[in-house]
Amino acid sequence: xxxxxxxxxxxxxxxxxxxxLRTEIRDNLLDALREGRDPWPxxxxxxxxxxxxxxxxxxxxHDIVLLGERGQGKTRLLRTxxxxxxxxxxxxxxxxxxxxxxxxxxxxxxxxxxxxxDYLPVEWRHRDERYFEKLATPDTxxxxxxxxxxxxxxxxxxxxxxxxxxxxxxxxxxHRGIVAINELPDLAERIQVxxxxxxxxxxxxxxxxxxxxxxxxxxxxxxxxEDYTNRGRIIxxxxxxxxxxxxxxxxxxxxxxxxxxxxxxxxxxxxPDYLIEILARFTRALRESSAVDQRSGVSARFAIAGAETIAxxxxxxxxxxxxxxxxxxxxxxxTAVDVLGGKIEFxxxxxxxxxEILEHLLRTATAETVRAHFRGIDFGVLVDALESGVMxxxxxxxxxxxxxxxxxxxxxxxLYDEVTERLGATNDGERAxxxxxxxxxxxxxxxxxxxxxxxxxxxx
Length: 460
Prior knowledge:
alpha/beta; P-loop_NTPase; three-stranded antiparallel β-sheet; AAA family ATPase
């Protein structure tokens, strides 16, 4: 709840103690660690690598640059930083820079403080309002980040030497907060130079003005390591001013990869866990493939978009076929491959083989998932039924009920029940998907055949 204190006098009477930004972050981080709370919600796979480095840097009070390929969670990590700020923080009422009521830093605020004394108004700012983010683009100017002379204020009659004619940029406006600059190397080098004083002396220089504003700002940035030699680079003096340089990475464990997909994907229908696992294995295989340009990386967004695509395919089929439950099935994985190829950068020698590479790695991921879930099940009775001439048809527009109705009878065998129980299937859509996965596994292990065409697959 927003505090009700409205003046500096009331604030002092309440016993409020002013803290620097770094002290505030350090104290809140240590409190969370002491109490066993997770200060980094929604981050997976960084627990023993990135997070400890980040926590040490924050305890030390360092500015931080995160280096990593695309889709490694750098921006999400930056945005969780606001959780380490106090929920509500007092600011001087009407202050352009959000100054602390005990410590005005601009000439206007100092004058108001002298005039009003204990009646100086106090406002309250939520922690989310103290996190500022800027995507670095080549057209970003010094005025955007630091500030410039405001011609409108000059036109009002103020002299050019008056500090009150300055329009402050993003970094001064982030006073007592966190400013995060995404893709820092994209900033022109002359713009990076303008940040040097902010990073070290904690003040700003605008044109010919001599301003000594003791800014209390934590500067964080993200960059792709390849940007040092490709699109641009972080100039050496600016790199030197970051107290910590932390490398991020893709999840090293399959369970973390799956957790990221589940957390980030907005699914319009039910996607069973084994399909998410296939997409996770598929993504990891692409990251290890010599045919893929690993300098570009394979973003977590690849698997996230894949999950969203197969969910959409399931809803599309359920709507057209009148199915009561929209459930994604293995046949829908092909729809994801059709639209995701453009998100991968292949090595120059692989031109023309892109689809072949994607299909091969998807089959590999599917086979690994089949082995993980169906180990120990004897599929001999199903293979025998198919060898007798029975064929099973599935497809993007084949309803689950029609697929199940077309399965061969296995007599007294409980194979179908065993397969669906392994995957926790409870309705027709889930049962059809489980058996479809088993059929695909038999095909990939060369125990049955498969013919594809017209959006359908026929096992026999």
